[in-house]
Write a structure and sequence with these properties.
CATH superfamily of the largest domain in chain A: Thiamin diphosphate (ThDP)-binding fold, Pyr/PP domains
Strand content of chain A: 15-25%
Oligomer: heterodimer
Shape of chain B: globular
CATH architecture of the largest domain in chain A: 3-Layer(aba) Sandwich
CATH class of the largest domain in chain B: Alpha Beta
CATH class of the largest domain in chain A: Alpha Beta
Strand content of chain B: 5-15%
Distance between the termini of chain B: 68 Å
Radius of gyration of chain A: 20 Å
Helix content of chain B: 40-55%
Number of helices of chain B: 13
Shape of chain A: globular
Largest interface: A-B, 45 and 39 residues
Amino acid sequence: MPLMTMVQALNLALDQSMAADPDVLCMGEDIAVNGGVFRVTKGLLEKYGPKRVRDTPLAECGIVGTAVGMAIAGLKPVAEIQFSGFTVQAFDQIEQNMARYRNRSRGRYPINMVMRCPYGGGIRAVEHHSESREAYWAHTPGLTVVIPSGPRNARALLNAAINHHDPVVFYEPKAVYRAFKEDVPDEPETMEIGKARIVRDGTDITLISWGAIMRPTLEAADDLRDLHKVSVEVIDLLSIKPMDTETFAASVSKTGRCVIVAEAPRTCSVSSEIIARLNETAFEYLQAPIKRVTGYDIHFPFFQVEQHYLPDSETIVEAALETLAWK
Amino acid sequence: MRPRSAPAVAGNGHASARPRAPALTAAATSLDLGAIEYLQILNERGEVVNAARDPHLPDAELLKIHRAMVLTRKLDIRMLNMQRQGEMGTFAPGLGQEATQIGQVYPLEARDWFAPSYRSFGAQLWRGWPIEQLLLLWDGFFEGFGPPPDVNDLPFSIVIGSHVLPAVGIAQAIQYREDRAVILTNFGDGAVSQGAVNEAFNFAAVVKAPIVFICENNGWAISMPVEKQAATQWLAQRGVGFGIPSIRVDGNDVLGMIVATRDAVDRARNWKKGGGPTLIEAVTYRMSLHTTADEPKVYREESKVRAWESKCPINRFEKYLVHRGTLKAADCERIAKECEDEVLAAREKFRSRAIPNPREVFDFVYEKMTPELRQQQAEYFAKLDRKGIK
């Protein structure tokens, strides 16, 4: 199995999906000749030609709106929004059409499309380039929202998203794009959308996270084990909507304690939703209030100070210890 | 308040040293956007004024077109009546726009696509949507939105101009598959102010998409007259700015509409041979309400409406048909009666089907219901059960 970065793994998923299915096409700003600003679509133009790898005019609303039309006509477009911060320009088409067409056509026109968006902070980007707004999309009926955390699951999830018969918002943690490599098998691999993964087994406390912040969460789990002799269970959510309540409810029912770690602002967020669901499913097993380590309800800070905004392993360890100490 | 002649920024000695930009003169601000053709084949008296563009349709076709316009009007009037009696939800009448409606879809083949906005039931009838389904739709039954199986249309859009980008996407899918279909989409004068519509023009122009844009300029976006909607002299000039061949048509002249649209459909079908999108501004008038929730007396004078009465698309077409001997005056009454009967028969079908089914509201959100939805559906069904609702 070759070692790959997330960028390479995503490229592999696109390449293999396009090779397997002539209805799959890629579109977006600077994705063809330039191979995408992060090079996720590099080499695809040469392989599949300009009909299937399309540079579009610079208009996100136009990209999503025309992708919806292609999906209505039975194609499977994978539309790249260069940075998730620019999805707001496309909000109109995402909410009014992408999310609704199956329902408003009474099933006649399902929307088999993927909207890929690099999201999140930590790469010293300019303003509007670091947001984590997954909660917006999770709130919209009709959408499916997934966020991989590493090269291998990114490849498998993107395969799944391209073959999903409903529109998928695919958030790519750009801080992970080239941060580390993993073995990614040559043969196409997929995964079920809506399933979380238990990435560490443990019995004392559950840490739930997703996307780029899985890394400090896993570092924190290591420190808790090595320095504090705590048995930590770590869950990688992977799918924001649908959300695998069963997996985290079972885990928290076992450990009785939970910390949720997220990059997004706290209020009305995915972390809020997890707490609500644990309240419904694991209330009688809780031994301490559920704690959150999240971003703040502020505009994402400019990059000279962004490291202080993002959750780090030290803060996560502290939150876990406080939760464990609660009697 | 400071006097108008005072400088906008208080001077600190530097301002006066700055070179002054030349003042824009009237000449510099009036841009030449090029000539826009205005097509009219039948004038208000039903006379052929542009014989060179007469499509010379056979009598049987002319009669089909006439009947479709009459049926559209009968349905319109009946729906307003039903709404006023509490038997219909809020709907958008299309009175006076029958020629625009039928003329734009007449040149389409069944396999072509049609992406309408909401004031389109004339065109929808022509495309094969049953009257009773349109009644269901406007009476608040989501079932009405699903296109009939053999009709290649989108459900009409509600949000102004939101369907135009997807329509361009469908045109691109047609190109992708090298199909010979085209797509036609319509929207009103207000929609040209929407960013999404302007993006759609641009996306279509850049790839020479096989699409026909029909801007039904009926003079009003609820209370906003078209003069306040855009600063260009004609809305069709918007297309020129995007590199899209554009034309204005008398939207109350069904032959003019047919010819303009037929030419545009041909251009779209020949996208590989230099064709592509066309923008048609159909100049018509909203004789009735924006919707049944609207009161035009608040914002427009009745005299303006009366000025358009003599331009009625159905009267002028009947005059033309009678004059050329295709129709006798007595036939007009008979056809009106037959159309009225057709609408009433459809109303009966509508009444027999107008039974709400609150249990299907979760069914079309996703292909497979998510665990969340299954749980919420169970709660919702339990609520209905408690209330004894089937």
